[in-house]
Amino acid sequence: MFARLKPCLVPVTVAVLATSLSGAAHAKVDGDTIVLGAALSFTGKYKTNGKHTKNGYDLAVKRVNEMGGVKVGGKSYKLKVVYYDDESTPARGAQLVERLIKQDGVKFMLGPYSSGLTKAMAPVTEKYKIPMVEGNGASRSLFNKGYKYLFAVLSTSEQYLAEAVNLAAEQAKAAGTSPSAIKVALAVENDPFSQDIRAGVLDDAKRHGMNVVIDDKLPKELNDMTVTLTKIKALKPDLLIVSGHSKGAATAVRQMSEQKVDVPMFAITHCEAADVVGKYGGAADYTLCATQWAETMTYKDGYFGAAPEYAKLFEQTYGYVPPYQAAESTASVLVWVDALQRANSFDTDKLRDALSATEMETFYGNIKFDETGKNIAKPMVLRQIQGGQYKVVAPTKWASDKLIHPRPKWSER
User: Are 139 and 112 within 8 A, CB to CB?
Assistant: First the structure.
C-alpha cells in the first residue's frame, strides 16, 4: 500500500532562490531554510527542457512552503533551491555539482536534465556521499554502477515500451486466450536508448511466454522500414514495437499507412516529438505512444491532489501545459520532503536510508526504489491516438479512456 504524502500545515513564507555563481547559500540548512542544489541547463541544447525542469522544481518548492514547509526535529523549515547553469555540458555540470557540495555546503541534490548530464554528475555526488533525487535521467546504465546515493523517480529506459507487452497480455486474457499465443515484432534503432527499450520488451515478452517473431536492429536516423514491414505482412504478429526516436516514429507511422500494414497493436516512442498527428492525421490513429506521465492520470497526493489538479496549477503559474519533464521534477522534490520528514534528520546517511525506504503515491505516480535506485512502482503510461487526440489507455487501473483493440484494418478505415 502506498502512503500518500502528509503535508505540514504551519504557514511558512515562500522562498525560492535562483542564483548566479556568486551569492550562493553556504550551508545545507540556513536558519529555517533547507537548501537544495541543482545544476540545470539554462543555455545550450537542453535549455528548453532545463526550463521545464526548473519550473517543476520551483512549483513544488512554492507549494510545499505554502502548505507548511518540511517538519524536521519538531521544527518547520522552508525549502529553497540554489541553481547553476550547466550550459548543457556534462563536464560543466560535474564541476558545478562539486562547487555546490564543496563551496556552497549543499547536502541535498536535485538532478539535471538528461541522462548524459546525470551520468556526469552522479560520480561526484557518490564520491561525497550526497544523495541526489532526479527525474530526468532515464538510461538504465545509470543504475548498473552500484551507486548508493542516486534515486530516480522516472521509469528507466528499458521500461518505455514494456507496458505495451503487458497490455497485449491483458487483452489476450480478456479474450480468453493465453498471452503465450501472442507473436511480437520488434524493430529498434541500433543506439543505446532503443537497445535499452528492446531489452525491456524482450524481458517482458519472455515473462509472458510470448514468441518474438521479428527482432530487427535498424540503422540510426531511421528513414526506411520496408524490409521489416514486409516481414510483418508475412508473419502477422499481434504486437509491433518500434523505437527510433522522432525520425523513426515518423517513418513507422508513414510507411505503415503507405504500405497498408495491418497489425492489431502498434506501439512507438516519440509520438509528440515527431508530430505524427500533425503530419499524418488519421493515419496515426490507434498508435500507442509511450510517455512518463499524463495530466489525466488519477494518482494523488496531499500537495497537488490528482494529476489534473497539478496540471491546472502548473498552467496557471507558467502559462503552458506541463510536460512530463516538469511533473517528474516536481515529484523529485516531493520525494525529498517525504524522506526528510521520515528521517527526521539532516544527516545524509540517514537520509540516504530514508530515500531507500521510500514508498509513496504522488500526483506523478507511485514511487518505490529498488536497490539500484530505480523507481519500480511507476509503470510507463501508454496513450492511444484516437481521433487525433492522445488518450491514456494503460496502465488500465489509471487510464482515462478505453483501448481500441485490435486496430482497425486499413481496408476498414
Answer: no
- Say what the alpha-carbon torsion angle 167, 173, 175, 178 is, to the nearest 10 degrees: 110
* Residues of the chain scoring pLDDT < 50: 1-26
Instruction: Outline where 160-214 has alpha helix (H).
Output: 162-174, 192-207
Q: What pLDDT digit, counting tens, does each position of 52-97 carry?
A: 999 999 999 999 999 999 999 999 999 999 999 999 999 999 999 9
pLDDT confidence of residue 206: 97
Q: What span, in angstroms and rounded, lies between the C-alpha atoms of 124 and 207?
A: 37
94 membership: H or E segment, kind and range: helix 90-102
Structural domains of the chain in order of their starting residue, each with its CATH number: 3-155+294-368 (3.40.50.2300), 159-291+380-412 (3.40.50.2300)
Q: What DSSP assignment string belongs to 228-283?
A: HHHHHHHH--SEEEEE-HHHHHHHHHHHHHHTT---SEEEES-HHHHTHHHHHGGG
Question: CB of 331 within 8 A of CB of 367?
Answer: yes
| pLDDT given for residue 223 in this prediction | 87
Cell triple for 26: 553556504
- pTM, full prediction: 0.82
DSSP bridge partners of 232: none
Cis peptide leading into residue 308 (ω within 30°)? no
